[in-house]
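Slide 14.
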Amino acid sequence: MRIMIICICNAIKEEELREVARHGVTDPEAAYAILGKTPQCRVCLDHADDVMHCERQRCARPCGARAIGAEPAGHHAAA
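Slide 15: predicted structure.
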């Protein structure tokens, strides 16, 4: 699996932004805050917005209905 870094200043990965977007977050700065980061040089914010928008489009059901870190319906952690 490839790992895409979206924000070099904060080492924020694409998958981290996708996860936050799946839970209804629409603003990159809010996503950074949820991840415990703040934009530094701000060059990445447009790309972060594009990644989050794309992920929200892929979301098959209301994203806000799930808690961050929760298992998707039908998936259970191995015992």
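Speaker note: The chain has one domain: 5-65.
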